[in-house]
Design goal:
Layout (H helix, E strand, L loop, with lengths): L9 E2 L3 E4 L6 H9 L1 H6 L8 H18 L2 E8 L2 E12 L2 E8 L8 H14 L11 E7 L3 H9 L7 E8 L2 E11 L16 E2 L4 E3 L6 H9 L1 H6 L9 H17 L3 E6 L6 E8 L8 E6 L8 H14 L12 E6 L3 H9 L3 E12 L2 E10 L1 H6 L1
Parallel strand pairs: 5-6, 13-14
Antiparallel strand pairs: 1-2, 2-3, 3-4, 4-5, 6-8, 7-8, 9-10, 10-11, 11-12, 12-13, 14-16, 15-16
Helix pairs in contact: 1-3, 6-8
């Protein structure tokens, strides 16, 4: 009996899940050699057509025969689009995995396929499913495409597990999350996109890898390091690279929106601005720092103006729809306070010893801003 005959055919009318066939070999090879696949999976370097044939003819059917994993080819309009699978972990648990052909990425076909896969996996065995209770998602830290797919399906992201996953010949940090049979297949929280906002003097954009060198320069600057007392010292390029890599986390959890402040002509990093604590009890807060090159040019005042206007724009118009913003500054940080006051922030009070500077705790002044202030400022 051909093990591939065990594979059910599932469809929603747009995508079809079926057994892999020899007709898929060329597409699976293209998928396996794609740079994104090589970066985020353990597909062997130098994978060949013969390797793919063995994968399609032996390894995948063998998973069905032994019950260790259940893999499907995803077909759209008669063409191979992806591979999706559930890997049995026992006791009603399975791990989900998915890999898309480059032509299928961003089309929504993998999401549709995974919904079919999950519905089948959670269905009782008496109805042809696997009767799963828990599906586990894992990904290497930094694989934002996989994480966003899991987010759309309702998976939690329960944190980072250090050195928990094998990547080729080393251990790397991994993300882990779960989806229960009783969970809704829908996001658990907002995922914020970083809009590119172009002003006359500055551009707000997403952080990029090439920002790390200038971020390291800024955070090594004596003045910046003094006011941001919790920064590591010395502040290394590795610290800056970690900072840049961490910026999407706030957006993925719906808790913060981070922009790089860039020069419109050169795209050089001039600073960073964030709207933080979007889900905190104290309310959303604006925070910022500047590269030494940006000082005395009105860069930060212009960047804050763009950011707070976006914060107050209604969500239906692409903004955050906030009704209030906070801003805190060390009482003696006159440059930061000038930026706040130039943008209409109103002083609300003093918190004693509320911030940590390089030489210890300083009193903090607390500002707030509401849309009415912005309109008249």
């Amino acid at each position: 009996m051909d093990p591939r005959s065990r594979v059910p055919t599932l469809t929603d009318g747009v995508v079809t899940l079926r057994a892999h066939t020899d007709d898929d070999v060329e597409s699976v090879l293209e998928q396996s050699l794609d740079p994104a696949s090589l970066t985020w999976t353990n597909i062997p370097i130098g994978y060949t057509r013969d390797d793919v044939k063995r994968y399609v003819r032996e390894l995948l059917p063998g998973g069905w025969e032994t019950g260790r994993e259940w893999a499907f080819a995803v077909e759209v309009a008669g063409t191979y689009a992806a591979t999706v699978l559930l890997r049995d972990e026992g006791e009603g648990r399975a791990e989900i995995a998915y890999a898309a052909h480059p032509r299928s990425r961003g089309t929504g076909s993998v999401d549709r396929a995974l919904r079919l896969l999950l519905a089948w996996g959670f269905s009782p065995e008496s109805e042809g499913g696997r009767g799963l209770r828990t599906v586990i998602w894992r990904a290497f830290v930094g694989n934002w495409a996989s994480r966003k797919t899991a987010w759309r399906l309702g998976f939690s992201c329960d944190g980072t597990v250090r050195d928990a996953m094998v990547y080729r010949d080393t251990l790397v940090d991994g993300w882990i999350g779960t989806l229960l049979a009783t969970d809704e297949l829908a996001p658990r929280n907002a995922w914020l996109d970083v809009p590119r906002i172009v002003g006359a003097d500055v551009v707000l954009r997403a952080h990029a890898e090439h920002d790390a060198e200038r971020a390291q320069q800024a955070c090594s600057d004596e003045r910046t390091a003094y006011w941001l007392g919790s920064l590591p010292t010395p502040y290394t390029l590795e610290d800056a690279e970690a900072y840049v890599r961490s910026r999407p986390e706030g957006m993925a959890t719906g808790t913060a929106l981070h922009w790089a402040i860039a020069d419109p002509a050169t795209d050089d990093l001039l600073g960073s601005i964030s709207i933080m604590d979007l889900t905190g009890q104290a309310g959303p807060e604006v925070g910022y720092w500047a590269h030494p090159d940006a000082r005395g040019r009105g860069v930060m005042t212009a960047a804050v103006r763009l950011a707070v206007r976006h914060a107050f724009i209604d969500e239906v118009d692409g903004g955050l729809g906030l009704d209030k913003l906070r801003l805190v500054s060390a009482v003696d940080n006159t440059a930061s306070r000038r930026v706040a006051e130039a943008n209409g922030f109103r002083e609300g009070g003093i918190e004693r010893l509320g911030t940590v500077c390089r030489d210890g705790r300083h009193d903090t002044v607390v500002y707030d801003l509401v849309p009415a202030d912005l309109r008249v400022s």
